[in-house]
Amino acid sequence: MFRQLERIIALSGAPSQLELFELRRSLMQALIGHLKLEDWALYPRLIDSSDEQISATGRHFKEEMGGLAPVFLGHCEKWTANTIAADWPAYCADTRSLLDALSDRLNRENRELLPLLERLDGVLETPLSALA
After folding, report:
1. DSSP string across 71-95
2. pTM (two decimals)
3. What are the tens digits of pLDDT across the range 48-89?
4. From CA 63, how far away is CA 124, in angstroms rounded?
5. CA–CA distance from 55 to each of 8, 27, 49, 113 (Å)?
6. C-alpha 25: how far from its chain's center?
7. CA dihedral defined by 84, 72, 11, 108, rounded to 10 degrees?
8. How far apart are CA 124 and CA 132, in angstroms?
9. Neighbours of 84 (CB within 10 A)
10. CA distances, 63 to each of 35, 102, 122 (Å)
11. pLDDT of 43 above 90
C-alpha cells in the first residue's frame, strides 16, 4: 500500500478522489490493525520479559509508536477531498514525510524488535522442550 500511495503522489495531478480515498481507507485499516496487534500482543510480551534489554526496548517502541497513530489520523483529517484538490503539491509533500516516517518505523521494527522477539522465543522454548 505504501508503494501504491508513493506512485500516486508522484503524479503531477491528483487522481480520482475515489481511488485515493479507497487506498487511504485501506492503509488506515491496516495501520490501525498493526498498532492494535502490537499493543495487545507484541509489546506486553517484550515489556514483561525478565531480560532488561528486551523489556526496555519494548517500552521504548511502545512509547514511540504512540505518537505515530495520532500523526497519521491528523494527516487524514487535515487532507480532505477539498484540501487535496486545492493543494496537491502540499498534500504530496506531507504524505511523503508521513510515508518516510512509517517506513522508517517498520524497518526499525524488523531490524530491532523482531530479533528480540526471536530471542525471547528462543529463551522460552528451551525450558518447554526440556519438559518433553
Report:
1. HHHHHHHH--HHHHHH-HHHHHHHH
2. 0.77
3. 988 899 999 989 888 877 677 788 889 999 999 899 999 999
4. 25
5. 39, 29, 5, 11
6. 15
7. 170
8. 14
9. 21
10. 12, 15, 25
11. no
**CA gap 59, 42 in Å, rounded:** 11
All 3 cell numbers of residue 6?
A: 508513493
Cβ–Cβ under 8 Å, residues 101 and 71: yes
In whole angstroms, give the CA distance from residue 54 to residue 57: 5
State the DSSP H helix or E strand holding residue 100, giving kind and residue range, or none if neither. Answer: helix 88-108
Tally DSSP H helices, then E strands, for the chain: 7, 0
Q: Which three cell numbers stand for residue 108?
A: 526499525
| Cell matching residue 57 | 526496548
Instruction: Please provide the DSSP assignment of 31-49 as one string.
Output: HHHHHHHIIIIIHHHHHT-
Nearest to 34, CA basis, from 106, 91, 113 = 106
Residues written for the chain: 132
Measured CA to CA, the distance from residue 19 to residue 30 in angstroms comes to: 17
Residue 126 has pLDDT above 70, yes or no: no
